[in-house]
Design brief:
InterPro entries (chains A, B): Bact_StressResp_Reg, STAS_dom, STAS_dom_sf
CATH topology of chain A: Transcription Regulator spoIIAA
Number of helices of chain A: 4
Order of helices and strands of chain A: EEHEHEHEH
Largest sheet of chain A: 5 strands, mixed
Pfam family, one (chains A, B): STAS
Strand content of chain A: 15-25%
Organism (chains A, B): Noviherbaspirillum suwonense
Shape of chain A: globular
CATH architecture of chain A: 2-Layer Sandwich
Oligomer: homodimer
CATH class of chain A: Alpha Beta
Distance between the termini of chain A: 33 Å
Protein name (chains A, B): RsbT antagonist protein RsbS
Chain lengths: 119, 119
């Protein structure tokens, strides 16, 4: 698979990361996402990582980068669906994902962004 | 990757298919999705296939099955994000996905399900 789909939900973009990230895929995602934020006038980005059993420093850095880019483009980023084991690993690795907001799931992430929690 | 994540958005479940489906993964998805429809009392299921360049008869049958199972559990299924080339292939293969509703994207799919289009 060569690119990760970006789904538009109102003023929000949703990215679900399911596959192992590598350099090129991460670059493509950053390009696509920044383009879509501008094109769709998005106010928020939700990154769902519920399918990931492991978040290493590469993915951590990519998420930080995406959040920083989105911020400059006036969109907030919320990381959702983190598995308990991933949270443990992140802290143990010293990757605290500063500057990235987190929420338990997509519903809560939407509410956090103030863009229509639906339940 | 062993399972496809199912995201809850209000009364709706969203499944993004990004990886090549095989028998076991399809079975797991059917199990997970039916369980989640009951557990989350979902009224609708959105299946996003925007990442798929190809939908063969196996995936077509899986989508039909999921829609039929969801229907019995009182949830509607809408297939969203189909690429133009996929539509062409489906018709050429004679796979018309009868019984499955389609929408251009997630936003329109949500509106079709009457569960909060957000734009």
């Amino acid at each position: 698979m060569e690119r990760i789909p970006i789904l538009k939900m109102g003023k929000l973009l949703l990215v679900t990361i399911q596959v192992d990230m590598h350099d090129r895929l991460a670059m493509t995602l950053q390009d696509d996402l920044t383009t879509r934020i501008v094109k769709d006038r998005a106010k928020g980005v939700l990154i769902d990582i519920s399918a990931l059993d492991l978040v290493d420093s590469f993915i951590g850095r990519m998420i930080n980068n995406i959040a920083a880019m989105a911020k400059i483009l006036d969109a907030d980023t919320v990381l959702v669906g983190m598995q308990p084991a991933v949270a443990i690993t992140l802290v143990e690795l010293g990757l605290t994902l500063e500057g990235v907001k987190t929420a338990l799931n997509v519903d809560r992430g939407m509410k956090m962004l103030g863009l229509g929690g639906m339940s």
